[in-house]
Amino acid sequence: MNKKLSITLGQATSAGIKPENEDFYGTKIPDDAQLENKGISIAIADGMSGSDGGKEASQLSVKQFLTDYYSTPESWTVKHAVNRIMSALNSMLFSQGQKRYSSSKGMVTTFSAMVLKSQTAHLFHVGDSRIYRLRHSDLVQLTHDHRIWLSKDREYLSRALGIDTHLEIDYRRTPIEVGDLYFLSTDGVHDFIADRELREHLIEHRNNPQQACDAILKAALANKSDDNISCQLVRIDAIAKANKQEFYEKLTRLPFPPDLVTGNILDSFEIIRELHATARSQVYLAEATFNEGAYTGNDSEKSLVVIKTPSINFVDDPAYIDLFLHEEWVAKRLDSPHLIKACELKHQRNFLYSVVEYIQGQTLQQWMSENPKATLVQVRGSITQLAKGLRCMHRMEMIHQDIKPDNIIIDQNNTLIIIDFGSTKVSGLAEIKSVIEHSNIVGTANYSAPEYFKGEQGTNRSDIFSLGVIAYEMLTGKLPYGEISPERAATKKFVYTSAREYNPQVPDWIDLAIRKAVQPNPSKRYHLLSEFVTDLSKPNTELIRSNHAEPLIERNPVMFWKMIALVEFALLFLAIFVIYK
Predict the structure, then answer these.
(1) Domain spanning 245-357: which superfamily?
(2) Rg of the Cα trace of the chain?
(3) What is the pLDDT of residues 340-383, one digit of tens each?
(4) Element (H or E) spanning 224, and its range?
């Protein structure tokens, strides 16, 4: 049976000797799907002393965090999602504090949160609330107090939510183990209970987290705590771990469709003709039968779709099936006119297949064959459109990883649309431990970034490399590094050939922009797609200046060696002339 992440939770809070409790905490344990994709979230906050709206700030922060986290895309990493939420919370608290209390300290709170996802604890922290971990008998403080001491008795918070427009968040990730205890507390607890005493309470009550929290609150009061007292204790009872057999059964619950021919009916779709077939899959043009409610498409009487079916050769290959399902998962979470759309089916599937919109047009590869040297206007327009589609993916923390002309369709309105998400890397899914380990996907060698061939992980800059190759090929009909053999790619010397060598009409500044996009070293490429698009639209004076400062062998190695050869020829000719004179 699949093991699910599970915890036992203890929580306790008290105003202590103060008239009002400005601490707040909360926990959310979601249902199955979100438990796997998003995990369990725990948060604690302490409204800052002297803050007029401290209580409201702590409550709002915890409640908003626990709600908003589960509304972020499943494709986002935990770190990205929580950073976005905390930054938004900080801006809101600072703004409301200024507006309602005319003070930068109007709504300020400490905040410590933990997200348990798959087999990892992700910790986020600002202020002087704390997170500890007791593993076996070792107690470790996992957060650092953001306090500045002015004297023995005077100190202030150097960081907190709502105290400044800029927020610096401490982030840490650590593997979890069954039996681990994670303890969250406000300063009314840990300032009055030494770590040694805290450790004793946790060990004594490790089998009952609620008893532990109650005992720790009593101890803090007994030690004359003069603040609000709050704590949470999380015991890890089970870690998410998939059973291989159960995982495979889930993948193979739907049978592969048989070979299809014109006129066959697949659920509510009638096959019109085969569009494409490889050893890995078959692609068909089909017509949706709306009287049976095939899918939530447009309202036309006859709507064409594209159906992709898996090859029977891989019926016993769970890694292949997982990737086949992954492609549709990605498509359903993207929304851009430059990305192909998955069709939402109304009926229950009886076979394994995917359905996407039908785009009437041609591939960019076909267009390039008919237009071997595109104009600058055509290249700019194409790259700008493709960048918009990729930007949508990158915002979702997805990297396409197989951008090439064959994976781009130009429709009848000259809109470029990226297809095929089979190689797409999704950062949020990569955080979930799976029984299936996929090899590092490198896409098509001629368009793949060099880092893939070294076994490194792709980034958004890897997609920028592929886009740069396409721009170069559209202008020249050639590839910037020539044909690349997958077998020899790891040892290939990536020496850039200027686009002007093949097309003298290409301006120097355009060539420089493409050269930067296809730099073999990803750190030297554009960081953002928008930077590349901008530099294709107008000359980047800084890029031009830095290029002139480079030695000729680096900025144009082909020209350098041509000049060396020319000089050698001239010297040889001169020597012969002198000898025979």
Answers:
(1) Phosphorylase Kinase; domain 1 (3.30.200.20)
(2) 30
(3) 999 988 888 899 999 999 999 999 999 999 998 899 999 999 99
(4) none
